Amino acid sequence: MSLRLATFNIENLMSRFDFSGFRNQLKQDRVLRLFDVRSEAEYQRLEEARTIAHTDDTRQMSALAIADCDADILCLQEADNMAALQAFEYGYLFRMVGNGYRQKYLIEGNDSRGIDVAVLMREETRDGRPIECLDVKSHAGLTYADLDLFNDELAQTNRPGDRIFKRDCLEVDLRIGGRPLTLYVVHFKSMGPAREGLDGRQATMPLRIAEAKAVRHIIESRFGRGRTADKMFAICGDMNDYQEKVEIRGDRRNGYEFVPSEEAASALDIFTLDGFVENPMLRRPVLDRWTLFHSRGPEERHLCQLDYIWLSPALASRNAGRVPEIIRAGQPFRTIFPDGQAVERYPRTGWDRPKASDHCPVAITLDI
């Protein structure tokens, strides 16, 4: 019996306008900076028009990327609320590509912008086995003090009573054709600005380490510490961290060089320590594991995997020959692909936007 599982950071699936850019240029869209906007009312009208026009193209591409996943169960990150999720599922996934998701689960989490993790599921797998949701549990309320995770590094920006997850860890208990499977859907703390001599990744690393420890604690509390290896579970989502990357050197005129390297430390080491879970993406070639192109100009460009489907040892062993797929047709043209990886983009894809997302969906077919 097989199940098609996918994860995708759809990026800002919003149901509301953000007018804060009128007073804060850091939040103002770059196209509006080209114009002399004289009043807040005029700014709001322009921002509404810009957002609506931009969003339709973007969501068409997001829907095409999700359709290419062809997943029975889809784990999403950055959904505004259930109303936005339902509108997108019906208006784009169902009406546009003819294949929607009847079961939807979203619990409001901790993100200051209101973006949440969610799970969309079909009623049956592609081979006709029922997909039953037995329980959905949020862990958004957990604090550092609850799990005794507070330390000196966290104390620089947090307090013991602060919540661990910057969004949530959504625990979803399923029965697939009568067989159990548990999903843990997460979206870890993003890499913020540089602080106190540390780059954005290093400055926010303690927060992601705490989140990873909390996820592992939740799973070990559920199944028993030292007794998780034979359980059927997966951790899905945007981890906002990586254990390896591919540095991009060169330029368009002279060509590019792609140089892989491993990171000395990562929050994800918490997951791979003692084989707690396995990253099946390592079954792909080293230059072909990336799900995001990062660029801060020609001096800082790399490809890396931020989006994961971690498999428990039992699930990984049962699917030893299964290789994840990465859907990259929604990437903007500015993304630099290694040789041999170029894909045909979706219609109307732009240099930087429109795009399906900066993130590539990841999908894998699993034997359950």
From TrEMBL:
Report keywords, A-Z.
Endonuclease, Hydrolase, Nuclease
Q: Which SUPFAM superfamilies match?
A: DNase I-like
Residue ranges of every copy of the Endonuclease/exonuclease/phosphatase domain listed in the record:
66-359
- The answer to whether keyword Ribosomal protein applies is no
Q: Gene3D superfamilies from the xrefs?
A: Endonuclease/exonuclease/phosphatase (3.60.10.10)
Q: Which GO terms describe its molecular function?
A: endonuclease activity
**Which regions span the lipid bilayer?**
none
Q: Keyword Hydrolase on this protein? A: yes
Domain of life of the organism encoding this protein: Bacteria
One Pfam family name is Exo_endo_phos
Q: What is this protein called?
A: Endonuclease
